[in-house]
Design a protein that fits this description.
cytoplasmic vesicle; Potassium Channel Kv1.1, Chain A; alpha+beta; 13 helices; 554 residues; Methylamine Dehydrogenase, Chain H; globular
């Protein structure tokens, strides 16, 4: 039988491999690794909060400041700085036309052209427009930001992506709109005529909910909420992963990923990376620089696993202007492969970097940013940040919990605001010490900290105990976070124990994840002690469900 603790609960700590918890916030990014930032003064750099380096020679820069102002500088090719002219500038100039707008995300093309979404879901475009990639119905260069509202007026855009000369946006309701250059079907309209205004990408995506988009040079990708990947556009190097080299004018599902749930997709110039919910990476497409990480330079038209140590991957990075790939593991290690400063690195190489952004600053050609950089401020504290600092602070607390002989210092009013359980239990309680014996110190401390931070920092094995608490207190959001954390620690040895915990605590998402993991690793899982000691009813249900999905077919 599975190991039980004193309360009769499953003791998953005996079978869960410890996994280093990752920090939810990054250290302040060193933007100075991009040469163009040397044009900014030290005082100006202190104000930077978001930044994007782009252009064919990484000679253009857009950044936002702590005051929500937007500045640009650089060569201004095709008016891509949005200043109303094509004059280069070696000093930062304020982009007044977007004054007061907060940037949620942005992307850029090869012209270059810019597509930007605000935190309110509006879309603005400017720059090169020879192929209608600005979506304003013309082919005239856009010298100033233009608000794109055609077919998007009642939509909130949450993600943007640019190929060399085409554009994609993703709305909050899971719809994808595309426009621009369409010589290979990259707009997904079914033809090869350029698309001058936003058009919803339908076909196979008609009834799907898209959660992530990406563009290669002349291809497009979408991940839907079921974990499937749909692709369209140019396929001369196999970058669509369909097992062929023919272009695809409408979305087509990557059938070779059947049974694999993809969370994110990233596109290089002519290669594709995907990250699965089990922390694995698959790659396909062009490989002349080793950008697939397979150890050779042969193109692949089917998804191929990328082996990056045993730690799970939590982030993948690529950019349509480069042949470089990067990934970050849960343990914080950053790997790079592909074209790295002129060298062809055919296998993932462990770097000394702490961020995938650094790979592109130091080794990509051109040295652009693969995403909008976010720079955390060091000084100013928001209300949320101030509350985080007050957790477990004996100097300001008016209540302390005694758990396993240790005190945890908290504030009654915050607990009552944040948790229904405390709202009632502390209503008439004038005590300043509450003893807690039902849960362990790490678990209860993590719960109280969550009420201050909205996040959890526990190892996967301890998160099972927190899942128990979240179920007991009916904290549904916390329960969801616990399930996400527990997933990160799954392996063949503990899969059955985690499945048992998921069933016990009615964690349906985790149960489905564990079941799929067991099916995908059935041979090894069925040889573990956990499977041999499996609860009779659970085993009966597992075999029945596995039979229904064809796990035991020859």
């Amino acid at each position: 039988m599975p190991v039980k603790d004193e309360r009769g609960d499953l003791d998953v700590s005996k079978v869960v491999k410890p996994v280093q918890a990752t920090l939810s916030s990054l250290k302040m990014l060193d933007v100075g690794k991009w040469p163009i930032f040397s044009l900014c003064s030290e005082a100006e750099l202190q104000l930077v909060r978001q930044a994007c380096v782009f252009g064919s020679a990484s000679n253009e820069l857009l950044y936002t400041t702590v005051n929500d102002e937007i500045f640009v500088l650089g060569t201004n090719c095709c008016g891509c700085l949005g200043l109303g002219d094509v004059q280069s500038t070696i000093e930062p100039r304020r982009l007044d036309s977007l004054s007061g707008k907060k940037i949620a995300c942005l992307s850029y093309g090869s012209g270059p052209h810019i597509v930007l979404a605000t935190t309110e879901g509006e879309v603005f475009t400017w720059g090169h427009n020879a192929y209608s990639q600005l979506g304003n119905g013309t082919t005239n260069a856009g010298l100033v930001p233009y608000h794109i509202s055609t077919n998007l007026s009642n939509k909130q855009v949450i993600e943007v992506a640019c190929g060399s000369y085409h554009s994609l946006v993703l709305t909050s309701d899971g719809e994808v709109f595309a426009w621009g250059y369409n010589n290979s079907g990259q707009v997904g309209s079914g033809s090869t005529a350029n698309q001058p205004i936003p058009r919803r990408v339908t076909g196979c995506l008609q009834s799907k909910v898209v959660v992530n988009i990406a563009c290669g040079q002349m291809c497009s990708m979408a991940v839907v909420n079921t974990g499937e990947v749909f692709v369209w556009g140019y396929n001369g190097n196999g970058q669509l992963g369909l097992g062929s080299s023919g272009n695809q004018p409408t979305p087509c599902r990557v059938a070779a990923l059947q049974g694999i749930r993809v969370q994110r997709v990233a596109c290089g110039y002519a290669h594709t990376l995907v990250l699965t919910d089990e922390g694995q990476v698959y790659a396909w497409g062009a490989n002349s620089y080793g950008q697939l990480g397979t150890g050779n330079k042969s193109n692949q038209s089917y998804p191929t696993p990328v082996v990056v140590e045993k730690d799970r991957i939590i982030e993948i990075a690529a950019c349509h202007s480069a042949h470089t790939s990067a990934a970050k593991t849960q343990g914080g290690h950053v790997y790079m492969w592909g074209q790295c400063r002129g060298q062809s690195v055919t296998l993932p190489h462990l770097t000394h970097f702490s961020s995938t952004d650094d790979v592109f600053a130091c080794f990509a050609t051109p040295a652009v940013t693969w995403r909008l950089l976010s720079v955390e401020p060091d000084d100013h504290l928001t209300v949320a940040e101030s509350l985080k600092r007050e957790f477990d602070n004996p100097n300001t607390a008016d209540l302390k919990f005694l758990v396993d002989g240790k005190y945890i210092y908290v504030h009654k009013v915050l607990l009552k605001i944040r948790c229904e359980h405390f709202r009632s239990s502390l209503e008439d309680n004038e005590d300043d010490i509450v003893e807690m014996s039902e849960f362990s110190y790490p678990v209860y401390r993590a719960f109280l900290e969550y009420l201050y931070t909205d996040s959890i920092s526990l190892s996967p094995e301890e998160a099972v105990g927190l899942l128990d608490l979240a179920t007991f207190y009916r904290e549904n959001r916390l329960k969801k976070l616990c399930q996400q954390t527990i997933k990160q620690g799954i392996c063949e040895e503990n899969a059955i124990a985690l499945l048992s915990a998921a069933v016990k605590y009615e964690a349906q998402d985790l149960e489905e994840f564990c079941f799929r993991f067991c099916i995908n690793h059935l041979t090894v899982v069925t040889q573990t002690s956990g499977f041999a000691e499996m609860d009779h009813d659970l085993l009966k249900n597992f075999i029945s469900k596995a039979s229904r999905v064809g796990a035991f077919k020859n």
